[in-house]
## 1
Amino acid sequence: RGISNPITISIPGVANNAVKASASGLRKVKGNTYTLTPGKGREVVISVSGTMSNGEPVSDKRKFRIKDIPAPMASVRNEVGVIRMPKSSLAKATISAQLIDFVFDVNIVTTGFKIKIPGQATVVVNGNRLDSKAQKALSKARRGDIITIFDVKAKLKDNSSYRLKNVMPLSVELSN
């Protein structure tokens, strides 16, 4: 839900140009390639029909579950969970949110986050990189400190009205 899902629709024995498909949120792209942008509810029914080469009409309906997008995970350098990196790298890094092992690529934009450095107050950052206040707090961190990046604000690039689940936090152990 919330994104255009690429799908292929065909009927065995029916030429692609003779297949007609319909469903709420279904749009033909080209040939037998479609996108399905599901709306409300828990399932969608796709109806297909066509004509066999011998002139015989065929039709079918298939029901598909509609699932919400899972919770993204905060990441740095495409790494998630608990990672280890130099302080200088974290200071310049882009904080992003990713869907791990998702079926296809989804563009997620990070608009802000909070960073907690041991012995420092939590810093609220707008954007996807550490600002000067966050970098100043980071400069006081020491090797072995665990930096927590949490409360990441993210949205879908192509559908900013869709509300993503809360982004899972990221922990960074400083290697120097």
## 2
Amino acid sequence: EFARSIVGEIDLTKEAENYLRFAGEFADDERIHVPHVERDLCTEKLLVVEWIDGIKASEIGAIETAGIDRKRLARTGTDFVLQQLFVNGHFHADPHPGNLFVLPGGRIAPIDMGQMGTLD
């Protein structure tokens, strides 16, 4: 399982496809911002993705300083995870705080889509 997963992660065209799929799945949710991928510039060894300038989800003090409502953010995060699992059947398989950024207004921006899972 580990070998299969690692081989899949080093082909960055697959990661680009994951970003595009995820973007489509959350296109109607203004609380989630999936970074834009320049698909025509991506190759097996190169991934070109929009720069995200946000606050790491683990930086609680910075989130509070930015005036972001933590309860609302927690609700958004919960909805984000539940939609992935129970609606889309396609989920971010590495959702640690370094891969989730908080943008102004409490929007969530996930990054690093190399590991994704699917539920049928």
## 3
Amino acid sequence: MAAKLPLAAVGVGRIGLYHARHIQEVGRARGDCELVAVVDPHQDTARRVARQLQEGQATIIHAFTGVEELAAAGMAAGAVIASRTRDHYDDARTLIDAGLRVLLEKPLTHSLQSAREFVAYLDADAHRKEALMLAFMRRFDEPLQELKNLLDQGFIGTPFKIVSVLEDPVPPPVGYSSPGLLKDMAVHNVDEAIWLTGAMPEMVSGLGAQLYNHRITTVQEDLDDAFLQMWFPGNLLGQVQVSRNHVAGYRNETWVYGEDGLIHLGAFQADPLRVELEAYKRGGGVEKRHFQMRDYGAEVPMFIERFGPAYRAELDHFVAQCQRRAPFAVDQNDGLRAMAVVEAGTRALSTREGGVEVKSVLPEIP
């Protein structure tokens, strides 16, 4: 068996805590990795989480308040970074320069300019080029993987429209630092569309508003409701709808329309742990499946209820590729592509242009 890969969790707030727990779970399942440190700028949080996760683990979990301390300690070979978006660039670069490989939460950085600089820096060196995995967990979600399998098999023929919807029922938690609704939410949907279709949008237009959510939270955000329309090469259209205003509960759905049928995944329903997939062919063929998501027991964030197994699966891939010293399935260039589309959408919303070409914001699309 390979030596255990020592891992750290950076930023152990709402999502970071689950990343840390998943490191422990994957370590127990695989036997070739372990959690050795947690990092959080709030010292009391770092120490509390380290104590909380120490139970049942023999290896000491150290608590640090910054990635510089973690790098200087020399105890970790990899890290999962879930710090504030504005800290992504510095945190990831510090650890990569120290020789670690990192799994970085979305978005890649806080701005398209810094993302371009970061990708150029990573791609300029052989080690750095393969040091970062971007946490687009939807690519590791079993229901979405089955949808992609049906598409790749040609079940509904050539797709001509894909629709991805993500709507939250509550505001972000108090103290949350949002880079903007599109960067924070729509980046997942955009990457999903790029991954499912294997194509890059050429033009984006959109609409946005502040409807309700901004009145019930102290978190500052540019919009609480937005719609993007994306034109792909050929006759393929993409639509993304994101919102903080689905007050009845968490909504996450995808439709793909093809020349020979339709696939629909997910729905807003009473049981959030049951995800249904329906595929209908022109003339009668039908595929139906349901996927039971993991019950984490205690009350958890809504996105963990839906995507908890996907978060763990992406971490399993991260560990496996680290052990093999192999490239990751999703990297900084995937993050840059999604950010470019989101930036084009943001410009379209702010300028009210009919459409913004993606190449106008990122001429060198990777």
## 4
Amino acid sequence: WMPVDLYIGGAEHAVLHLLYARFWHKVLFDRGIVSMPEPFQKLVNQGMILGENNEKMSKSRGNVINPDAVVTEYGADSLRLYEMFMGPLEASKPWSMQGVNGVFGFLGRVWRLIIDERAESMQPTAAVVDRPPNADENRMLHQTIQAVTSDIASLSFNTAISRMMEFTNHFTTASERPREALEKFVLLLSPFAPHMAEELWQALGHQESLAYERWPQFDPALA
């Protein structure tokens, strides 16, 4: 179970978390109890989320954002997605309720891309068709799979979301949306908006949770 593959923590916690974790690990290494000199293979310090006034959040400044209030108004997926869309993981960035609303709007577009909101029950829109994607649709799909997969591996979540926004815009204007392409897109979306992705997966005709599905693979020739 050691070393840990990836340690992610705030820079302000380096003394309390990282220093003591390394200190005690090195004591154990010197005593011959563990076999490796370092406890972590990779360290990433995430940036601080500031208040909307661009200052550090604190009760005394009155700029603290209550996540429960955001979840109540916009849903957990919107909160989760916005925090990843704010900017690079390592950068400090100010909170923006306008940004939360923008991400909420994007999730609404994804929902309408697949779901017929006029139907009495949750079902796909008539634009969802059971045919293989054509060359143009495959190009967009496989470029998106390639980009999102690469961005997740490098912890570049904000750019992964941008690529999914491009995919959504591309297919929203299409009169036909191949079910196969939408299913793979929903799998890409699932780490970012897991609750909504699960609903969409079921609406596309699946009984099992998407958690049991393999991650989509991109084809360089199609991309």
